[in-house]
Structures are given as structure tokens and as C-alpha cells.
Write a structure and sequence with these properties.
With 1123 residues, this protein is an alpha+beta fold. It has five domains: 10-106, Endonuclease/exonuclease/phosphatase (Deoxyribonuclease I, Chain A, 4-Layer Sandwich); 297-631, no CATH class; 639-796, no CATH class; 843-947, no CATH class; 956-1122, Ribonuclease H-like superfamily/Ribonuclease H (Nucleotidyltransferase, domain 5), CATH 3.30.420.10. The chain contains 41 helices and 29 strands. Strands 27-26-23-24-25-28 form a six-stranded mixed β-sheet. It has a four-stranded mixed β-sheet with strand order 13-12-15-16. A four-stranded antiparallel β-sheet has the order 17-18-14-19, with helices on both faces. Helix 15 (425-441) runs parallel beside helix 29 (756-766).
């Protein structure tokens, strides 16, 4: 059919197919059929004309009685028809006798009422060379009064447009006619003047084309394509579609009647929003909570400090140039273009507002536009009232916001994530997914509950008196409170209904959505509810959810007006929740919409219990649906989870856009869409491979087939995805983008320890380990996504010092000075020089300073000296046959590094230090001390490098030590050999000095019995000696657990444990702990001595001779190798 029509055309009727998953309810969505339908639209250059009225056009019952609804009927037109009939609307009528709804296409021939349309600054005016002078004269003639200057500029601009600039489209047609006449004349005669005139006309025509392009770009509100060449038709079409989408043709009135009369709809809209903004229901009283955070003196000084011109300009540059203007009609682009003219006056006005706390009420005038929440709005509730504020007013609030953002995180709970630097929507979504995963896996009978509360018209219902009390409670300065309340309460609202400005509404409550300050004020108000909940948790009245043993508890999660509450599944908990919410709503003016609110329970909660809870809360149990735009699920995600992403990208990459854009424009749009829309989901979930492949395919098809729907890929995808400086188009591969976004979560788990979700995930999955060493793969889908990204990223992790571009030796990357000033280098040439000086009779002795028996060569100093050989023996290097076979020092070092790596190098260094201490200080270091120092240095060096895991099975150095000063250490042990059982122990001071020793034997005891008997006897002796602070150490872990945890009174050794407990309960400080056997050698000596002891108990006032070396070694801090 397409080949038969060259003119604008439209198709209307039942197509028996749908394009997107949201166009049906019930049944299964077929991607294959939707793809075929989309291909047909692409081949025929058709686009959907939209609709209003009922959402679905066909309905029938399926098996089981459930209804299946689909939007099978629609109107399709090509781009030419859409532009020709910009007012055309499709209405879905009521169904009576058929399973299809009738549809009615109105082509917009009925003349609409033309009301007062607000002034709009045209960016195309700035292309005229004389407009800058007009702005300067109009502005400077008002003596610095910004409001009067804007009014004068507005009047002069309108006059300029009428008398000089004129209608772009009429000028374009006039120039085309002149060009046609000149070209006809040139066909008959050669004329230099006509050729010159043709060039001038062509230059003027190009200027008009530029102005036309700017005009439609400004009206299109297009965010994806930047201003470029030959895109005028694209921007024009986009403007028509946007206007059609935002135009309200019919709605259900509050009384339930359907109405399509524009006058009636406008009148009812004014009444509806006047009722919202002007009715005051709250008491406005302050909510008093103990331990409430307040602003510091530095924060207060920051808020009241004089405003600088740089602050104002920074706030201006932070605004998008072509954002919709306020009542004065000037967009940010005007102030950016003429900042050299208007800057000083605007800055003075803003600085005065901060110093006085007062603003002119005209600055706060606001237009209200209605943005549909759904594709086909049916009532006024389906619109979101967005405020269009004047740019100068927004500069005041934006400067205030920039100051507020510096410290707002200090007074906000970590459970509030919205609009706070360093926090994002992902934080709350991760926590909710983890809670759902926990509840799905939990087998607790009592169970947990989640309540997802919907706050009805949240911003519009905030009570002003309550807001003022909140600011005062947080400690805001009086002048700042006055400024904020002036900004909030000085406004007058004008509803912009289908482009026509209505009468003013004077509000008495609410915050304006569109004002940069409103989100932060709302967050401060919601923090009051969070403080009430926190206080209830602190008083042990509110029982929060805890998803891991060591992790933090979770009572609530806030993101602006999205509210999640977590409690135990008890009726009393639900009633407490109701009481707290009712108190907050009564004072703040907010209202819970129970119809849209949802509840979710653990799997173990019965239906009867759910019914009782629903009866108390009036909130129905169902799935949570989406949260902050993220699909919420548990288990493995199905294809339907990612379908909305595919639908949005398909809509943004509509074929008609590809046909109206040049190839560079298509590349720009594809890069913007693919890099933006999936980003929201990719930062939380690992996308399946088929989704990533489909996204890449959609991008390729749009780039190469956008103009005709057909074509081949002329350049390999691998080349297109390269960076521009490498010859590519900088198109992102979906999988790489997904990994990089999830990599941010991996980095947060490494570095972002102050984030609440990191604390939860760390305690649940990592415990005290690092994400780089984590082996746990199972968990929620979010955790599995993080681990998959971690596995990919781990291959590219590299150790970098400081900021990644510093010298290891000569720059201060440690913060404690360059290493070259702290680390000594070993110059082996000093030893060779010493030997040479002896041969030349310059030095009288070349003997080794450690053994004083052989020549001190390099190899002798580091390996062959018998003092040094003991070090290598302790560290077990001598077990290698080749260790002593290499005589070349360099080759030996290389061989040693292969054998022992960091330990070998550390040992050489410590041997050199020990040799120098002997030479220069006269102190000799023992072999075991050198070995211990080398081992410690080696472990420290190994731990520096993240990619090298420390082997926990390596030998460890252990030894006896006192837990603290001014105490007595009691070491006890037991020993069993055949039919003999002995026990023993020793008491020493904290510096290892001898106090008392004992040993003994007993018949028929097992090893645990004699261990307990040794502890009992040692404690009795310590009490008898009058000791008041005793640390008892034993190498029997079982005995320590029995004493600390207790045993059954029927147990064979329960009487020993009870006697020990009686001693512990007496008035003295005693602790019992476990030590390794290498730290308990003295007690082991006395226990073995007790095996052959003639008496049941023998006391030693002086130490036996055989135990003195052991006592001396412990007192000297000697360490022993534990393999």
C-alpha cells in the first residue's frame, strides 16, 4: 500500500496486534509478533497517533474467568499527515455490544478557544545583530530594578518581533519568491547586480533557516538530540507530537461523568487544584523527638553568608538552557546570553534577599502545567502539577540549595537517600531487594512485614506552619527560615490549561514541584517521621527487620515521598505503625492513600493472619511492584522484568526519527538513548546476554537502517564501538556498560564504608573479608550481579600508589615522607671494598664481624656465616639442596627470590640490619630475632598487594606474653600417658618473674579432666596467695568452652566446673583464656613432671633448674615457629 500513496495518509481500525507489553493485561506477550508489527510500521513510515479514553480497546474472558484486555485498535499516520493535522485526536469510546471499543478520530477541524497565552522569549531573536542592543537599552533604563527591567525587555522584544524580526515562515516564503524571480531573470540576461543580489538573498535565507531551526528546537523540548544541522523537520515533528501528548481532550469529572468540553474541563481543573492548594487540614504542631540533630555554627554561618556573584553564575550554569520558562517568559538561555548585561542587577537582588529574608511576590508567581502520569489519563488524579518558576526566583533557591547540600547529609538519617550527595535511588533498591530475598528464604514462623505507603499529593499537602517548625527544630537561622517561608508562601499559581493561562490561585499549603528547594524541604519534613520511628525503635516498641546476625536493623526506608516501613508480623506492631503515621499526618498535612499502598509478608505468614493485619491497616497484601522505577522481584528474573527497558528504547528510537535525522544525528540519538535509558536498570542488575545482544542490535539497526528501514552494516561493530580518537563512533557495548555500572557497587563495597547498604551487604555476605577475596556466589540477584561484575573487573585490577602517577621511592605517597628517606639500600660493594683494603694493608682486619673467624665476603655475610646459617635454618630455606651450591651472589639472590620471594628479600635485609647494629652499636641480634623480624616484614610486604592473598597456612611465630601490666599470669596444663594423669602450672608476674609453681597427679582421669583439675588447683593457689588480678591461660580450648558455657550437672566432670565457677564468683578479677601450646611450655613441663610426682600435689617456691631456661626465654620475649 505504501507504494500507492505519496501523499499524507492514515490507517484506522483493528490491527489485531500490540507493540509493547504494557498494552495488554493478562495473557502472554509475544515479542516475535510485536517485532513483526513494528517492522510493518517501519516499512510503511507510520507512527502511532496516540489516544485518550479507555486504555484497552478489546476484551474477552479467558479460561479460569480472568479477563484479557489489549489495545488492538489504533490510528496510524505517516509523518506528513501528523504535521498536517497537529490537532488530530483519537478517542476510545465506550463498548456496548461488541468485544471491541469504538474509536473516533477527530482531525482537529473544530476551532479551539484562544485564550491569553503567556509571553515566551524566542532564542532565535539572539541571532539578529540588533537584538543585543535592544536588550541592553531596555535593561539599563530601569536603574537596576530586575522586575521592571524584565518587563521592559519583554515589551521591547514583542515590539522587535512585530516590527523587525517578523514571522519567520512569512519571511521564508517571501525570500523564496524573490529568489525564484532573480533566478528567472538570470535565465535571460547576465547581470552582475542580479548575481550579487542572489548571493545576498541566499545568505539571508540561510540565516532564516537557522532561526527556524532554533525556533523548533526550542519548542520541541528535545533532550536527546542537540542542536545540529538539517534537523528542522525532526524538531517540528517532535514539537507536534509533544503538544498532542500534553493536550487534554477529555476526562472523567469528579462526579464520574465523561467530559470533552474544554471550558468545563478547565473550570473543573481550577476547582480541583484550588481544593488541593487552598484547603488547610493539618494542625501544624511541631513533633518533638529527643536527640534531634541540629545545624552546627559553621553550617549556620554558611547559610547567612553574603552571596557572591560567582555563586549566582554557578547556579545559572547549572540550569538547562531551554527549560520551560516561568510567568515572565524568560528561559535560562536569556540570562546566559546576556549575563554581561543583567548579571550585576540579578546578583544584587539575590544578595539582598539573603540579607533581608524577603522577596518580591512577583518573583514567586508560578505557572502550573499538568504532566500525565500515565499514557492515557482519565481523571485529574492522573496528572502531576509541575510548577514553572521564574528563573530569577530559581536562582535564589538554587543558591540556597547549593549551600544546603554541603551539610544536609549530617542531619539526615542514613535511611533517607533522596537528594543527599553521595546517596542515590540504587541504595534503597539494593536494601529492599536484600530484605525480600531474606523474607523469601526465612523460615521464621512469626515472620516480617513490609508496608509500601503511597502519600497522596505529597508535595501539595505539606502544611506551612509545620514546615516552619521543622526548620526551627533543625536549628536553621531565623533569617534563613524567613527567606524560605517567603519563597514558599508568597507564590500565586496560574493553571496553564492546554496552553491558556487561567485565573490566579492563592495557595495556603504545599510545596511547588519544579522549585529546586522543594525536594530538600520535603525531605526535612519526612525526617520527622523517621525520627519518630527511630525513637520507637530505641524504646523497644518498634521491632525492625534484621537480615543478618551482625548487620544493622532496618525500620524504614525513605526516598522523598516513597516510604517503606519494616516491622514484625504482630498485630501490636501494625497498630503502633498506625499510631505513629496518624500523628505525623495530623501535624504535617500528609495523607496515606490506602488504595495505592501495598503490604508484603514473609512466606510463613498465613492467609488468616494477613486478613487480620489488613483489617487493622486497611492496606491490601500484594506484590510490591516497582520501587523507584526498579522492578522488585526475588529469585531469577524473567524476560518480562526487562521488557519495559526494551519498550522505552524502541519508542525513543522510533523509525520516523531515523528517517528525519542525518546519519550523524542517528548516531548521536542512538548513543544518548542506549547510554541513558538502560543505565537506570544496569546499575543494579546484571542484564542477561540476550538483552544485551538485543540492545546492541537495536542500536546498529537504527544507525544503519534509519533512513529506509533497509540496509547493511557498512562498518564492523567492533570499529564503531571504539573511542573517537581511535577511529570509532564512541558507541557503548551494552555488556561493557553494564559491567562498568555494577563496578561502581564493587568499588563502594571496597571504599564506601559510610553507606548504609554497604554495611548491610558486608555483614550479610562479606563478614570481615574483602570483596576481592569473597568466594560466596549465592545470594540475592543483586549480589549475584555484583559478583559477576567483580569477576570481570578483577582481571583488570592493578595496584597503584597514591593518585596512580607517583614515584615509589621519591614521592610522598604514604603521607609520611618519601620512602627514600626511610628505607636503606644494601651496598654490597662496601664489603668488597673492605676486603680489598685489607689486601693493600690499609685495614688491619678482614674477619667477619659476627663470627670473627673467616673473611667477610658478600656470600659469607649473607649466607655462609654460621650465625646467619641459623637464621636460614629457622626459616627452612636450607631444606633446598641448591641453596648452598651457588657461589655467584647475583645468581644466588635470583634463585632465592624464586624460592622464597618476599621472605627471602626480607631476610637479607634483616641480616644486613643485624650486622650493622653489631658494627655500629655493639649490640648482637639473636638468630631467632632476625628470623622473626624477617617474617613480619615479609607478611607486611605481602599484604600491601591486593592481588596476592596471604597464605594462612604459612608458619607463624608465637610466644608467651602478658595480656596487660600489673597482673599475674597463671599457666596450667594437663598430661596423660597410659594409665597416668598429671597436671601442673606456674604463676608469674607480667614481666615473667617467678611467683609459684605446682604439679600433681590423679588416677582415672581423661585429658579434659586433668586440664580442668590443673585450672582448679592453680586458682586455689592464687587465691591462697592473696592475688587479686589473675589471667589464667590454658592450651585446652575444650576446657575454656566448658567453663564459659557450662556443662550438664549429670556430666562426669561437672563437679570440677562447678568448683571453678565458685572460685570465679569470689571478689577478685579472674579471666580464663586459650593459648597455643608453644605459649604454654612452662606449664607443660610441670604437667609432665606431675606424671611421676609421688604426692597428689607438690608446690614449688623456687623454680626447678630444668625449667629456668624456659622461663628466661618467655621473659625475654622469645618466639617459636608454629607450623
Amino acid at each position: 500500500m505504501r507504494s500507492l500513496f505519496q501523499l499524507p495518509w492514515v490507517l484506522l481500525g483493528n490491527f489485531n496486534d500490540i507493540l509493547f507489553g504494557h498494552e495488554q493485561r493478562g495473557g502472554n506477550f509475544s515479542n516475535a509478533r510485536a517485532s513483526e508489527f513494528q517492522t510493518m510500521l517501519d516499512n510503511c513510515d507510520l507512527l502511532d497517533l496516540g489516544y485518550f479514553g479507555n486504555k484497552y480497546t478489546w476484551q474477552r474472558p479467558s479460561m479460569g474467568g480472568r479477563l484479557i484486555s489489549r489495545r488492538l485498535d489504533r490510528a496510524l499516520g505517516n509523518q506528513s499527515w501528523r504535521v498536517l493535522f497537529p490537532e488530530a485526536t483519537l478517542e476510545v469510546l465506550t463498548r456496548f455490544h461488541s468485544d471491541h471499543n469504538p474509536i473516533l478520530l477527530r482531525c482537529g477541524l473544530v476551532q479551539r478557544r484562544r485564550g491569553v497565552r503567556p509571553f515566551r522569549f524566542e532564542a532565535a531573536w539572539a541571532t539578529h545583530e540588533g537584538f543585543s542592543d535592544i536588550v541592553k537599552l531596555a535593561w539599563c533604563g530601569e536603574g537596576g530594578n530586575v522586575l521592571n527591567a524584565l518587563q521592559a525587555t519583554r515589551e521591547e522584544s514583542i515590539k522587535f518581533n512585530r516590527e523587525v524580526f517578523c514571522n519567520i515562515f512569512r519571511r521564508k516564503k517571501s525570500l523564496e519568491a524573490k529568489m525564484k524571480g532573480v533566478q528567472k531573470a538570470l535565465e535571460n540576461v547576465d547581470s552582475a547586480s542580479l548575481i550579487r543580489l542572489q548571493g545576498e538573498l541566499l545568505q539571508e535565507y540561510n540565516s532564516i533557516l537557522l532561526q527556524e531551526k532554533i525556533h523548533w528546537f526550542q519548542k520541541s523540548r528535545e533532550q536527546w538530540i542537540k542542536f545540529g544541522n538539517k534537523n528542522t523537520t525532526f524538531f517540528h515533528t517532535q514539537t507536534v507530537i509533544r503538544r498532542r501528548r500534553n493536550h487534554v481532550s477529555g476526562l472523567f469529572l469528579p462526579n464520574g461523568e465523561w467530559c470533552s468540553d474544554n471550558n468545563v474541563l478547565e473550570h473543573e481543573a481550577s476547582l480541583y487544584f484550588k481544593n488541593i492548594f487552598c484547603m488547610r487540614e493539618a494542625t501544624g504542631e511541631s513533633i518533638i523527638t529527643p536527640n534531634m540533630p541540629t545545624l552546627s555554627d559553621d553550617n549556620k554561618n554558611l547559610l547567612v553568608a553574603p552571596v557572591t556573584k560567582e555563586e549566582v553564575f554557578k547556579a545559572l550554569t547549572g540550569m538547562k538552557s531551554f527549560k520551560a520558562p516561568g510567568p515572565d517568559g524568560f528561559q535560562p538561555i536569556f540570562f546566559k546570553l546576556y549575563w554581561h548585561v543583567v548579571g550585576d542587577d540579578v546578583w544584587n537582588l539575590i544578595n539582598e534577599a539573603f540579607q533581608t529574608g524577603i522577596i518580591d511576590t512577583k518573583l514567586a508567581e508560578t505557572l502550573i502545567v499538568l504532566i500525565p502520569k500515565v499514557d492515557a489519563p482519565l481523571s485529574y488524579k492522573d496528572f502531576r502539577p509541575i510548577s514553572l518558576c521564574n528563573v530569577v526566583y530559581k536562582l535564589i533557591t538554587k543558591v540556597l540549595v547549593n549551600r544546603l547540600r554541603v551539610f544536609i547529609g549530617n542531619i539526615m538519617s542514613p535511611l533517607q537517600s533522596s537528594f543527599i550527595p553521595g546517596r542515590s535511588t540504587v541504595d534503597n533498591a539494593i536494601i529492599l531487594q536484600e530484605v525480600l530475598h531474606f523474607m523469601n528464604k526465612s523460615k521464621r514462623k512469626k515472620g516480617d512485614l513490609i508496608f509500601k505507603l503511597d502519600l497522596e499529593k505529597a508535595y501539595d499537602r505539606i502544611d506551612w506552619e509545620f514546615l516552619n517548625n521543622v526548620l526551627l527544630d533543625f536549628g536553621f537561622p531565623d533569617i534563613t527560615c524567613r527567606l524560605i517561608m517567603n519563597c514558599v508562601s508568597s507564590s500565586s499559581l496560574h493553571l496553564l490549561w492546554n496552553g491558556v493561562k487561567s485565573a490566579a490561585i492563592i495557595p495556603r499549603r504545599g510545596l511547588r514541584q519544579g522549585d529546586p528547594l522543594s525536594p530538600y524541604l520535603f525531605v526535612l519534613c519526612m525526617e520527622k517521621l523517621g525520627l519518630l520511628i527511630n525513637q520507637a525503635v530505641f524504646d523497644h516498641r518498634w521491632q525492625p527487620i534484621k537480615i543478618s546476625k551482625e548487620g544493622p536493623s532496618i525500620s524504614h526506608l525513605f526516598f522523598a515521598d516513597d516510604c517503606l516501613l519494616f516491622i514484625k508480623a504482630h498485630n501490636s506492631q501494625v497498630r503502633l505503625m498506625q499510631i505513629i503515621i496518624d500523628e505525623f499526618c495530623t501535624k504535617s498535612g500528609l495523607k496515606i492513600n490506602v488504595e495505592k499502598s501495598r503490604a508484603f509478608a514473609s512466606k510463613t505468614i498465613t492467609s488468616a493472619k494477613k486478613a487480620r493485619i489488613q483489617g487493622i491497616s486497611n492496606i491490601r497484601f500484594t506484590t510490591l511492584g516497582k520501587y523507584l522505577g526498579f522492578p522488585i522481584f526475588y529469585g531469577r528474573p524473567r524476560r518480562e522484568v526487562f521488557q519495559p527497558v526494551m519498550d522505552r528504547i524502541s519508542a525513543k528510537l522510533a523509525t520516523w526519527k531515523g528517517k528525519l535525522l542525518s546519519k550523524p544525528g542517528r548516531v548521536t540519538l542512538a548513543n544518548a538513548v542506549i547510554s541513558s535509558i538502560p543505565t537506570f536498570f544496569m546499575q543494579l542488575y546484571w542484564f542477561p546476554n540476550y538483552i544485551c545482544s538485543t540492545l546492541d542490535q537495536m542500536s546498529r539497526d537504527f544507525i544503519w537502517k534509519g533512513s529506509s528501514g533497509k540496509g547493511i552494516n557498512l562498518v564492523a561493530w567492533t570499529k564503531i564501538t571504539r573511542r573517537r580518537r581511535e577511529g570509532g563512533l564512541n558507541t557503548r557495548i551494552s555488556r561493557f556498560k553494564n559491567v562498568s555500572l555494577l563496578g561502581k557497587l564493587v568499588w563502594d563495597l571496597l571504599q564506601g564504608h559510610d553507606k548504609f547498604w554497604v554495611s548491610i551487604m558486608s555483614k550479610k555476605y562479606l563478614l570481615s573479608d574483602s570483596i576481592l577475596k569473597c568466594q560466596r556466589k549465592q545470594g540475592s540477584y543483586v549480589w549475584r550481579s555484583i559478583i559477576k561484575a567483580h569477576d570481570v573487573l578483577l582481571l583488570g585490577f592493578k595496584l597503584k600508589l597514591g593518585n596512580g602517577d607517583v614515584s615509589f621511592w621519591f614521592e610522598d605517597w604514604t603521607g609520611e615522607g618519601p620512602l627514600c628517606e626511610k628505607v636503606w639500600a644494601i651496598d654490597v660493594h662496601d664489603l668488597e671494598m673492605r676486603v680489598g683494603m685489607f689486601k693493600r694493608h690499609i685495614m688491619g682486619n678482614d674477619k667477619c664481624r659476627q663470627c670473627d673467624s673467616q673473611e667477610e665476603t658478600v656470600m659469607h655475610c649473607f649466607r655462609d656465616c654460621h650465625e646467619v646459617q641459623e637464621v636460614w635454618r629457622i626459616l627452612q630455606f636450607v631444606s633446598c639442596d641448591t641453596f648452598y651450591q651457588i657461589d655467584n651472589f647475583k645468581m644466588w639472590v635470583n634463585h632465592g627470590i624464586k624460592l622464597g620471594g618476599a621472605l627471602f628479600l626480607s631476610t637479607i635485609w634483616e641480616i644486613w640490619l643485624g650486622r650493622n647494629r653489631l658494627v655500629f652499636e655493639g649490640s648482637k641480634t639473636k638468630a631467632w630475632q632476625v628470623a622473626l623480624a624477617a617474617k613480619s616484614l615479609s607478611e607486611a610486604m605481602t599484604n600491601v598487594f591486593l592481588n596476592h592473598e596471604v597464605n594462612s597456612n604459612l608458619p607463624k611465630w608465637v610466644g608467651w606474653s602478658a595480656p596487660s601490666e600489673n597482673c599475674v599470669i597463671l599457666n596450667t596444663d594437663g598430661s596423660v600417658m597410659e594409665d597416668k594423669a598429671g597436671f601442673g602450672g606456674v604463676l608469674r608476674s607480667s614481666n615473667g618473674a617467678w611467683i609459684h609453681g605446682f604439679c600433681g597427679n590423679v588416677d582415672g582421669y581423661e585429658i579434659i579432666g586433668v586440664e580442668l583439675l590443673g585450672i582448679l588447683q592453680g586458682l586455689r593457689i592464687a587465691q591462697r596467695l592473696g592475688l587479686s588480678r589473675v589471667y589464667c591461660q590454658t592450651n585446652s580450648l575444650a576446657a575454656v568452652k566448658w567453663i564459659q558455657g557450662g556443662v550438664s550437672h549429670m556430666h562426669h566432670y561437672s563437679n570440677l566446673v562447678q568448683e571453678i565457677h565458685k572460685l570465679l564468683d569470689k571478689d577478685w578479677a579472674v579471666s580464663i583464656s586459650h593459648v597455643l601450646r608453644e605459649c604454654n611450655k612452662c606449664a607443660d613441663y610441670f604437667a609432665k613432671l606431675g606424671l611421676n610426682c609421688p604426692d597428689r600435689l607438690t608446690n614449688f617456691m623456687e623454680p626447678p633448674l630444668d625449667v629456668i631456661p624456659l622461663l628466661q626465654a618467655d621473659a625475654a620475649g622469645e618466639r617459636f615457629l608454629r607450623v
